[in-house]
Amino acid sequence: MPRPKPAAAAAAGGGGWLSRWGWDLMLGSIAAFYAVMAPYTKVEESFNVQATHDILYHSYHIEKYDHLEFPGVVPRTFIGAFVISILSSPTVFVLHLLHVPKFYSLLTVRLTLSCVTLMSLRLLRVQVKKKFGHQAEAFFVVLTAIQFHLLFYSSRPLPNIFALALVNLAYSFWFKGSYLCTLQALIVAAVVFRCDMILLLGPIGLALLLSRSVSLLEAVKYCISTALICIGFTVLVDSIMWRRILWPEFQVLWFNSVLNRSSEWGTHSIHWYFTSALPRSMIVAYPLCMVGALLDRRIVPYMLPVFLFVVLYSKLPHKELRFIIGSIPMFNVSASLAASRLYNNRKKAGWNLLYILMLGAFLVSLGYSTVTFMASYNNYPGGYALKALHEADSSVKEKMVHIDAFTAMSGVSRFCENEYPWRYSKEEEIPIEEFEKRNFTYLLNEHRSIGGYQCLFAVDGFSRVKLKPQIPPLSLVKEPKVFAHGNMRDPDVLSLNWPGCP
Question: Measured in whole angstroms, how far is the alpha carbon of residue 419 from the centre of its chain?
Fold first, then answer.
């Protein structure tokens, strides 16, 4: 047989690469777009963001770490921050040598985390293709792409996202038939990152036992040994970092489940996940996933334990989408089976109308995700305010900026801080009348006027979505959220050209 010509071989090789990685490139591009366009982080991400910053910039000088000054409500593990810091450290090191602002290190960290999350999603996608076919794989990717939350969250350093990577890995093992590895991945997620993954581990473990996929003795042996190793590792690492004997996720479990104090951060009705969170995050995939379970019984043994996970989680009064984000990939698999069946039967009577309706729903989902992204883009006024302040004052004179709690929670992290002559304070609970007696150069806070300070500019933030009789029918309503103030006793500050406040 004659050898293929070099050009033909190169084309075949290029096509093979695209067929293997094309879907991942598409999802990665969307996730990277979200990270670059909305680079700042919120209060829920603050621990891992600050921990990653401190590992990268303070190394073994633990006394300088942010968590010692601002420990948060419950302690969290450093293991996720260590993993992402190690993976991103070569790029951050080069950026530091080139004196690039630390903001770009934040982008590096987030893109690195997104790569980890999407690699786990790739492993799941490959198993979907092997088990259900290439059409199911294609619709799985398309449904994930037109949803907003999964890819937007993929780069956000939340404990839930570290756990999500392991949950995706567990799903891929499950489809592959590596059942003990499925349980082990979920145990690592529960013991180290999110104790609530027990609610997913339980139904999946029970399903595997009832189907005789694993024996009880085998499951107990592997699960206990994995749990003990993980407990030992997290206690060793986190006790050093927190300077006391500590298993973080046990304290989180105690705080949320035993003391039930998570409800102090708000509560929702018992059906909220099914009537609000999942419909908003999955959009067209939400009804399709239910149809998929009816049309293809192969997915039912996989969907049912994940469905029970959401039901069990619904018992907790404090609810957020990120708590159940691990259920979305599996529901998307079921939705992809329904979409694939509609596609295959699109030329048949009756089915063609359903297929057209599905395509229309895809476009609606894409539009909804666009609006949701625009709202999220305008949801970090604190980060934008600090950036604007840095750009407005380029003098070499030392200046002190006070950042209040709202500003810190809406986009400001250690990665956003500049080097000397800038200095920063996050001192809490300062009475508003006390600022006049303090010698801060600038204030960033949620108050429109403060005695002794002039309001220099305001940064708008997302307020609500408004319906209008136009195309598109939705518009974003923004209002001033963060105000920058300058000390009226400092003539250098007042001499700059500021836009003023509305």
Answer: 28
